[in-house]
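Archive transcription. Copying these from loose printouts into the bound notebook so they stop getting lost. Printout 1 of 2:
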Amino acid sequence: MNAPKTHKHTNTQTLKYSNLNPNYDKFPTVKITGHDDACCAGWDAILGKIKTEIARRGQQKTTIVVETYPGANDQEITAALKNGLSPDAFFEAKDAFLSEAEIDRLTYPDVTDDRIFGFMSRLTIHEFFDEKKLGEMRRQVKGTAGITMVYGTGASEVAGTWDLLIYADLARWEIQLRMRCNEVANLGASNHTLEVSRKYKRAFFVDWRVADRLKRKLMDRWDFVLDTNTQGSPKMATGAAVRIALEQTVQQPFRVVPFFDPGPWGGQWMKEVCDLDRSAVNYAWCFDCVPEENSLLLDFGGKTMEIPSINAVFYQPKQLLGENVYSRFGAEFPIRFDFLDTMDGGNLSLQVHPLTEYIREHFGMFYTQDESYYLLDVKDDAVVYLGLKTGVNPGEMIAELEAAQQSGVFDAEKHVEKWPVKKHDHVLIPAGTVHCSGINSMVLEISATPYIFTFKLWDWGRLGLDGLPRPINIGHGKENIQWDRTTDWVAKNLVNRVEKIASGDGWREERTGLHETEFIETRRHWFTKKVHHDTGGNLNVLNLVEGREAIVESPAGAFEPFVVHYAETFIVPAAVGEYTIRPYGESEGVECATLKAFVRC
């Protein structure tokens, strides 16, 4: 899929939401030192490097394993490898898989019949193989001479041992784009033309869990890493260089590559402020910091290689997350920052997130999507729907929601409280709270990261961009709504719970949330001068919510100064320790603000 993951600015229409030209960086890179020659681009250079390595080993037989992440373009990669290396024997791991019907039965308990939700799979790649076929393929691989190549997801399982391991990787967002173009099927399936949402669901609950388990086992053994994100333009670096790059990345502040996507309620703010394609219908979402979905751009001496940013979490979890966060969550990135744009758009769906016990029992996740809305920008009529009206009748509300699926009519304001919001308000949304952002808001959503576990209750009678009704989940939703979260409780507990923490020369610190039932803490710093921070061995995620530019520096010179721009989210790994932030460039002498999130330990 060659569609861009982000979009270049295409014209200079009159600015509506800002009086300044955009400076948001859509392609942030991490500069890797000491390995300028580690990366090569294009099949000729890649094949040349592989041939050199084969020749250097000087063996009569060389077994090459090309392990692929599901979604890689098999046709392109296998053609290049066969034509360029002329292997004496070539095996595809999928030929030893169970039949498609058997794999459907294997994965069904995790995929389920639900249109949206499944169960986080515990399967491993070994379970996808037919033992008889696998044994026979292993015997054939061992019996060959010369260059023997085993290719595909699970190739390492087939070979068992090898001389050279090449890992073909790509980011989740690129996989989703390929799904939309019917270029990608699920692992062990030929369902290219299946409805995109169903392919995504199976990948989310099964394929990616299986592939990630395998990836983590192999990372220390990579000889080469192949960047297959851009079809026809591959890049490759040595496994050693990629591992060192990941080690360097988590010793400094960095950003992941954001991606933007339209939606039925999407707005117009990000087009302008983030410098996107003005001809697009809208942009609803931006995943500005969701490492399981985003990618990471590694700059090796001016050659930029793209890998999934989750690789940093897998390979350097303690340094990135901190000992306490890692011991609690494992190698998962528990904090998500994303944008929800309804400026000149529409209301989000009215929704509720599952309680922790419910998500564990029904979906296999051990924590839930507690979240909050931070208002980056608003129009005068902006509102947030949050909590229930005093005196709400649960039975009546559910009955009317169910009837609305046929009638297309639901009076949300009869049951759900509506709150006017202004710029820099912070609204807290613990799981079980009915909520949605209204029209004409630009929300920085700060949440935990179970990703897709949102139970939509009402979608204002809309169709999705595909022309189909969006799935509604009243059955799940009604089991999780906390009916006691009504007007007075919400006012006291969830709306602008701002508390002054500290102040100094040119700065002040405020606690803005989250609710005591949520595990994320947020702190806002207003500053005209340098502010001192310390990770305290805990992952920090920040966004510059006010000001054009700020600079992040190490008091000890441990990392290069790092410049961030308005609305950019950046990660400060736990290993960084002390750091400072001050206004920079256009913002010198101007009051700026950051919002910082971390896990309460």
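Printout 2 of 2:
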Amino acid sequence: MYKLSLYKYISVLTLLYIIFTSCSDFLDRQPDDMLTEEMVWTSRTQVESYLNSIYAGIPLNDFHREDPWIGLSDEADISYTTFATYPINLGNWSPASRFYYKYPTYYKAIRSSIVLEQNIDRCSELGEDLRTRMKAEAKFLRGYYYYLLIRIYGPVVLIKDLHNTSEDWNSFSRAPFDECVEYICALMDSAEKDLPESWKETGRTNLGRPDKIVCRAVKSESLLLSASPQWNGNIEYSGFKNKDGTPLANITYDENKWRKVAEASKSVITIAENNEQADLKLYKNSDNPELFSPYKSVVHAHIAPWNSEVIFGRTNNTIRGSYMIYCSPGPNNLGGVGPTQRVVDAFYMNNGKGIEDPTSGYVETGFASNNHPNWNPNNIDEKANRNKIISEMRNGDIWGHRKGEWNMYANREPRFYANILYNKRIIPQISEDAVKRNYYNISKQQDGFGRVELYHGGTSRSSGSYTFFPRTGYLVLKGVDPRANMRDREHNFTYTNVYIRYATILLNYIEALNEFDPNNSEIEKYWNLIRERAGIPGIFEVYPEIKGNQVQQREYILRERQIELCFEGDRYLTTRRRWLAHTPDEGAEQDNRKFGEGGRMWGMDINAGNAGTNDFNFLDFYNRVSFETRVFNKSYYLFPIHESEITNNTSMVQNPWW
């Protein structure tokens, strides 16, 4: 079925809808042998199953099969050469490639949403209120799938109704990007009218379904794409037109687009601030200042199921378990998801200053002579209290660098330790058992603590292949549960696959405000909320001279996004919508760029030294080196429309430069 073009696909499905030999996934299964049209639309159970099947097309955050944005951005490398991120980053793809080919999947869901909306009133087993709500869900899903399409492909064909097979599908051309966004917003506005303000206030059985907050959050995300430089005044898209001459991109800058982003984002914030039952706020481990822990809050914001920060998501333990295997060090895991040096360098110091700031206290080389203030603050004997130390570390009660770790990682902000596993750090996601922890160390370094060895010859490098260790010399920790026991691959907890969280909306809001009103006091207010939860001083307390300066504030706002939303897929979208992904590699001895998806990508020197003699005292590992030279052409700002779509529809134009 996926071999059909979009137009043949929708056309065939329309015909099948008419004679009701349906081709949707749900109806293909025919659980009762031969379901008739009447049986489906008069049965509450079948209608609910049909609606649930529409949700099934939403991609999972697995960074590989459906959601590759981590590995396709400048924040991480995924070392597995069998994953499609590998050839894409090397420039080995074309309109004939089927990498992350979601086009037919999303249009199939879009069509199904229309079918449900047009037929659900035939089901008398459903009350009127429930039918109304399910129609609203269908509208939301239609809009959400269009959002997923435009962030990958740009302008798309808008299918708003079921069409007869007699229609000329060659006349279905792409709609301008702004029209696509307007349609998404209209669907969200219509859907939210018949949805509760928050499912959290009505009970938690419907979490994962849209409510008013979710609809407004999707509007914020969609409008953000439209307001950003890629789609707002980008003259490089001046030739991006349909065959009839219709422009597909707005090449005239419109400041009002940013106002719309701010309005949509603030509407979410308003609910959060005025509806306590909606339980929407930045997640904290405790509202008691004496018990609040920024480190524990940041860690658990991504592992505590359906916490106060989650706006839209769904429960999925299988994907999280797989994710943790790919992010945990070997042996016995497949740890190969490596943060780049660029994102490591982006994190602030504990005083909220950047490492490039000479007053920050950052030291590039040497081993730390003292513990981080939050590591073993009572200064107990670690060797004699090994189990206690490890238990407190896994619980988040102690955190930070340890004496003897590399200075590059010393005295950094809490988010750094929550997100980055660096060489010699104690691995959180292993039980306290000394034997299991010693499994991760060479014999002379087995002390029962289980410190990760990412250097050449280290235990986590024992596979001898790029496949099972990070080429950057780091591993991603975000979303990895420190309570899990990844030595035995045990992770018996419930997790939420998060699509949108509250911090994203706050960052959307301050970014938008800065573009049309850089002196707005709410920039500081909501920016400080994020940094306060992160355990660092407010931005204007640290850098008062940037206040009101649009250019400088923009630089630090984008850096805040880079840190706060790292490894969540946002970086891929941000570098592209801000038209910064093609920032060139100037060939310097070290990478001083803040942006740029092409050229050299950097990490630690994982190949230095002699594998038989290296240990934690080996210094050459800590040299910055390029692990890969990537290719990024301007065509890569958008995925190509597959060549079959171009062939089967004479009105379809390809994305620029493909």
